[in-house]
Amino acid sequence: MTIHDPALKLFSHVYWKQKKEFMFERDEYDSWTLFAVEEGSFLYEIGEELGEARFGDLVLCPPHYVFRRKTLEPLTFHFLQFMSDANLEREKGWQGKLTLHDTPRLTSNYRYLRQLQGWDEESTQHKLYLLNDLLRMVQMDRNIRDEQPATIIDEQMDSARSSLIELAYTNLSMHDLAVSLGLTPVQFTRRFRKAFAQTPSEFINDLRLTRARHLLEGTTFTLDVIASHCGYENGFYLSRVFSQKIGMAPSVYRSMHHV
After folding, report:
1. Which domains does the chain have, with CATH numbers?
2. Which residues pair with 26 in a beta bridge?
3. Could you report the per-residue pLDDT of 86-106, keeping only the tens digit for each?
4. What pTM value is reported for the model?
């Protein structure tokens, strides 16, 4: 399926931060509804599909389906509703959890969505562009997988990725994780990069820096406290990594995002 901009009509976008629980554990919508998770996790059930979603996952519910959900951790996410002329209902796999592997691009899209709070014509068009881009990312991931022989899809690395997401903010040892997979650290890095186009360390840093940005934006925590919440040894090390990857010091980033 190819997504075209005119086929989608966005009419709702709400950004929720650190939501501890849903007001209703079940709901039903008249439109397509997308839950795009930035942080935290929740359980969902749509039709016969049930699962758990966290950063890197989109959960898409078609119109007139019962959507059951329950938070597992405080949830930061984008809630988007749209109508589509692309007959998504007839397309296989366009409901439930849609996982994206290009985390830097995903993080960038989320950052722009957070900044677009208005509903003037220009802001709405930007939001529509970002929604389309999220769905195109899903399609591109699928096209890449469809072009590869089934034997190339590395289920062990899919499992390793889930472990990295779960352990990202802890004192994680890449060496120990590699050993638990029966691999040397070099083998683990090589196979993970082949599967996801980035090393395990790069993947972990993307997750940690996303959380660090949220905490810089939404709290007055010291850098050492933020580091402890994000899996870094101390504020000095976080500051060095943040400056290298984001292009500015954490203090500068915080001052730019505080109203």
Report:
1. 5-147 (2.60.120.10), 155-257 (1.10.10.60)
2. 68
3. 555 555 668 899 988 888 889
4. 0.59
